[in-house]
């Protein structure tokens, strides 16, 4: 059965009595250039917004004028601000990101951008993937994967596998459909895997395009999709609306898109071209304490917007399931300078004095730190000494299972904040997760007492 048209899906949305009202967002430092199509990236100690920035006359078919870049902005109490030492991706459009499980179980940020191969007519889109432990470590010159001929590829790390959604065009995919494949790791993704993925042919009507913008693990094999539906081709009026739906990669099933925002939900703002003034290109969802979500998006290929949403009640959404990488950022402020806090906390020999929840004793054996706790003996591996306050450490049990614990100390004037990211492991119940958080907070409180005491014990 063929799915609904763009007009039908948008008309159903417009009948809602509870349509949200969005707002325009701004990022400084872009001058006369256009800033749009954002992607939100959450790290343990900060939140980033990756944004497409380009001149108003940049045109993808004209190599001489085409000049898009991806810039990173950091959230502060005063709004988004540029970060001078953050990487800049040139000849890059429409950033997207996902946290993956990397070597040794360490979180790895995978950032994707779209570039163009102007050796083809029309220019051929090429999606490039970059991986690093965090935003600042991304190297624009070193993609680990390139996928020619496709945009709107998105990734999702689940417990034990990686879901890959693409957007093929041509043949049975028509003007643009969603595809899905599953593989064991982000490092095993290939153009061939994506080309052979299952295509959802009848999710929408033949004259309607559909694409994925971000994926969410809802548990039980279900994947939530923040995406877009679209109508029209280049040179004519184009319309894009933000939508939500779910897919089951294993059963190869999908629900119909449900529109969650259209352009007139936001204040007026000039579009890059009049024919794309009715465009909302969603980027990311951010969970809010009240159970709703903040959606960040691009408007008319020229502006940034955000809107608070209550996702469709008749569809599963992230609040109903366990998102991979669910975490709590637990912290304490310490009345000591960063250098002093880092020097003490970076020495594994000091752990029993302030982190009895982790270990009761520790010793250096053949160049490796070996600790004792109620779990028995285990290995401790701390991040190499560094000027950034990174205190990440790995715990390797006798079984060989390794747990990565992100942690860092941040300067706060002459004081410091220590932040520990507690990640929920697969199968951990809410009550157990709460107890884990309480144990971490107790250790951080002990670190504060030790360092703010009149005498600091040093191993």
Write the layout of secondary structure elements.
Blueprint: H1 6-14, E1 23-25, E2 34-43, E3 46-54, E4 69-76, E5 79-82, E6 89-90, E7 93-101, E8 107-117, E9 124-132, E10 145-148, E11 154-157, E12 162-166, E13 178-183, H2 191-195, E14 198-200, E15 209-219, E16 222-231, E17 239-248, E18 253-254, E19 258-261, E20 278-287, E21 293-299, E22 303-309, E23 327-334, H3 338-345, H4 351-354, E24 361-365, E25 368-373, E26 376-382, E27 393-397, E28 402-405, E29 407-412, E30 415-423, H5 430-452
Parallel strand pairs: 17-20
Antiparallel strand pairs: 1-22, 2-3, 3-4, 4-5, 4-6, 7-8, 8-9, 9-10, 11-12, 12-13, 13-14, 15-16, 16-17, 17-18, 17-19, 20-21, 21-22, 23-30, 24-25, 25-26, 26-27, 27-28, 29-30
Walk me through this protein's architecture.
The chain has 459 residues and is mainly beta. The chain has 2 domains: 6-320, Tachylectin-2, Chain A (5 Propeller), CATH 2.115.10; 327-452, Alpha-D-Glucose-1,6-Bisphosphate, Chain A, domain 4 (2-Layer Sandwich). Helices cover 11% and strands 43% of the residues. The chain has helices at 6-14, 191-195, 338-345, 351-354, 430-452, and strands at 23-25, 34-43, 46-54, 69-76, 79-82, 89-90, 93-101, 107-117, 124-132, 145-148, 154-157, 162-166, 178-183, 198-200, 209-219, 222-231, 239-248, 253-254, 258-261, 278-287, 293-299, 303-309, 327-334, 361-365, 368-373, 376-382, 393-397, 402-405, 407-412, 415-423. A hairpin with a 4-residue loop joins strand 17 and strand 18 (253-254). The longest helix is centred in the last third of the chain and has 23 residues, at 430-452. The mean pLDDT is 91.
């Amino acid at each position: 059965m063929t799915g609904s048209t763009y007009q039908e899906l948008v008309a159903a949305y417009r009948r809602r009595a509870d349509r949200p009202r969005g707002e325009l967002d701004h990022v400084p430092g872009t001058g006369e250039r256009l800033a749009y199509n954002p992607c939100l990236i959450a790290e343990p100690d900060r939140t980033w917004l990756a944004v497409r920035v380009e001149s108003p006359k940049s045109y993808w078919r004209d190599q001489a004028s085409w000049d898009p870049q991806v810039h990173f902005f950091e959230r502060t109490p005063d709004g988004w601000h540029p970060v001078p030492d953050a990487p800049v991706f040139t000849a890059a459009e429409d950033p997207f990101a996902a946290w993956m499980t990397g070597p040794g179980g360490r979180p790895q940020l995978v950032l994707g951008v779209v570039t163009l191969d102007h050796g083809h007519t029309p220019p051929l889109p090429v999606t490039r993937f970059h991986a690093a432990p965090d935003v600042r470590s991304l190297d624009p010159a070193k993609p680990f994967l390139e996928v020619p001929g496709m945009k709107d590829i998105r990734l999702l790390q689940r417990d034990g596998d990686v879901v890959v959604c693409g957007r093929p065009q041509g043949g049975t995919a028509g003007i643009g459909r969603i595809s899905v494949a599953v593989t064991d790791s982000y490092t095993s993704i290939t153009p061939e895997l994506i080309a052979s993925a299952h295509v959802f042919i009848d999710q929408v009507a033949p004259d309607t395009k559909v694409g994925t913008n971000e994926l969410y693990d809802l548990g039980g094999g279900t994947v939530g999709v923040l995406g877009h539906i679209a109508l029209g081709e280049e040179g004519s009026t184009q319309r894009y609306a933000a939508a939500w739906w779910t897919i089951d990669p294993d059963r190869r099933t999908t629900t119909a898109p449900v529109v969650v925002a259209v352009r007139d939900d936001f204040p007026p703002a000039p579009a890059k071209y009049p024919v794309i003034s009715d465009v909302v290109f969603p980027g990311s969802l951010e969970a809010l304490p009240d159970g709703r979500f903040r959606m960040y998006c691009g408007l008319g290929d020229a502006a940034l917007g955000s809107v608070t949403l209550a996702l469709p009640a008749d569809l599963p959404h992230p609040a109903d399931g366990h998102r991979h990488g669910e975490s709590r950022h637990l912290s304490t402020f310490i009345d000591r300078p960063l250098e002093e806090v880092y020097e003490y906390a970076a020495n594994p020999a000091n752990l029993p004095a302030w982190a009895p929840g982790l270990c009761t004793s520790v010793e250096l054996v053949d160049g490796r730190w070996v600790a004792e706790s109620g779990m028995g003996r285990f290995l401790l591996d701390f991040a190499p000494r560094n000027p950034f306050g990174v205190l990440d450490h790995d715990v390797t049990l006798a079984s060989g299972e390794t747990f990565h614990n992100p942690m860092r100390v941040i300067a706060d004037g002459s004081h410091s904040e220590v932040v520990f990211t507690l990640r929920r492991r697969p199968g951990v119940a809410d009550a157990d997760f709460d107890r884990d958080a309480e144990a971490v907070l107790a250790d951080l409180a002990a670190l504060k007492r030790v360092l703010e005491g009149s005498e600091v014990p040093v191993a």
